[in-house]
From TrEMBL, chains A, B:
Residues 94-116 are annotated as: Disordered. Gene3D superfamilies: Winged helix-like DNA-binding domain superfamily/Winged helix DNA-binding domain (1.10.10.10). CDD domains: HTH_ARSR. PROSITE patterns: HTH_ARSR_2 (PS50987). It comes from the Bacteria. Residues 1-92 form the HTH arsR-type domain. PANTHER family: TRANSCRIPTIONAL REGULATOR, ARSR FAMILY, TRANSCRIPTIONAL REPRESSOR SDPR. Residues 107-116 have a biased composition (Basic and acidic residues). This is Transcriptional regulator. InterPro entries: ArsR-like_HTH (IPR011991), HTH_ArsR_DNA-bd_dom (IPR001845), HTH_MetalResp_TranReg (IPR051081), WH-like_DNA-bd_sf (IPR036388), WH_DNA-bd_sf (IPR036390).
Amino acid sequence: MDSEELLAFLAAVGHAQRIRIIGELASGQLYVSELARRLGVSRPLLYMHLERMEKAGLVVGRLELSDDGKALKYFELAPFDVRLNVDTISAAVRQVRPDPSDGTGDDEPHSAKGTP
Amino acid sequence: MDSEELLAFLAAVGHAQRIRIIGELASGQLYVSELARRLGVSRPLLYMHLERMEKAGLVVGRLELSDDGKALKYFELAPFDVRLNVDTISAAVRQVRPDPSDGTGDDEPHSAKGTP
DNA sequence: TTCATGTGTAAGCGGAGACTGACAGGTGAA
DNA sequence: TTCACCTGTCAGTCTCCGCTTACACATGAA
């Protein structure tokens, strides 16, 4: 994980509303309107947060049809596990983001999070 | 670690300049002006960042006198090690911040970071 | 005295991000 | 047709944060 990835991840997690979203989704997937109701948050605002979180790989969204034909946008948590200490952070800072056409990733090619 | 602490910590780490500061301090303590020079950052700006980081427990500052009597404000990294995954985050969200006069911390009374 | 080096703080600007309100469109049920 | 749901997006406001510029003050060396 290079410094840009790390920052995107931290920005996605480091917000009061967004960790509440994580707390709510921890017990299972939910669709947007229901999630908005539970958190007492406007739906457009929730969209913004979920978008940001999806870009950072924290959640994944999926459009689904309910029994009665309604389209529901479900979101669930993506598995992630990031450790923050002096070593991991300074390692990320040192990552110089190599040229796209360059195979010499010095430590972790593209991703350190998730439990595959 | 409750959700407020977690957010303060994440806000302190989740910033491009601040992880650069961590990267620089990883090799040892530095005083403010020297650090500002190395990072190419104005000193007042650096002060703001260091203040924020100190409040979050990321760094500690200490005023010292150099050989020639100059007062130097040295900063060094505080040891920290935080793990971020669904469990740790939702645990923090569930922390209801008990009354100050209450001894029943359900998991970790006041701090989960550092290695005392 | 002047210069170079430090620490510390205050005022102000600008832009990004958080948030609201309103819109268009779709569905099934009454 | 109307209602009650849902998804999606846009325009606008507002606040906070990052950042710069500028001060006041102290020290040792020239």
